[in-house]
């Protein structure tokens, strides 16, 4: 019998990598912070990166996996406005860049479902 891959590990890695990315390349993330959020974009970039990394760790640890996975689902929903901001701002870019920006929008749905599937195990 073939065992199903533990899908929690790749989700944890995705979240942790994205969280680290906020610290390594904050300028990219600053640009997609919705303008209606109060305070400097850099604050939101670092805060969201720290939350992503922490949620990734929570998903990776079996004892906190359920809570971490629910937090991941909520985080993916909360990140949607940043993806909308990116799509709006990149509407005049090259077709490839527009495809990336617009492609991020529907990608949130499978990410939320992935996190919920892990939480419900």
From TrEMBL:
It is a multi-pass membrane protein. The keyword Isomerase does not apply. Signal peptide: none annotated. Residues 11-80 form the Methylamine utilisation protein MauE domain. The chain crosses the membrane at residues 43-61, 68-88, 100-119. Keywords: Membrane, Transmembrane, Transmembrane helix. Its main location: membrane. The keyword Transmembrane applies. Pfam families: MauE. It is found in: Membrane. PANTHER family: DOXX FAMILY MEMBRANE PROTEIN, MEMBRANE PROTEIN-RELATED. This is DoxX family protein. It comes from Pseudonocardia xishanensis.
């Amino acid at each position: 019998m073939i065992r199903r891959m533990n899908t929690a590990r790749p989700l944890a890695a995705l979240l942790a990598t994205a969280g680290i990315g906020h610290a390594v390349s904050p300028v990219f993330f600053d640009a997609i912070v919705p303008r209606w959020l109060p305070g400097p974009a850099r604050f939101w970039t670092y805060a969201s990166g720290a939350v992503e990394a922490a949620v990734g760790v929570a998903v990776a640890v079996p004892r906190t996996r359920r809570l971490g996975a629910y937090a991941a689902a909520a985080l993916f929903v909360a990140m949607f406005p940043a993806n909308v901001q990116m799509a709006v701002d990149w509407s005049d870019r090259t077709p490839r860049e527009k495809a990336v920006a617009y492609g991020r929008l529907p990608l949130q749905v499978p990410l939320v479902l992935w996190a919920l599937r892990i939480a419900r195990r």
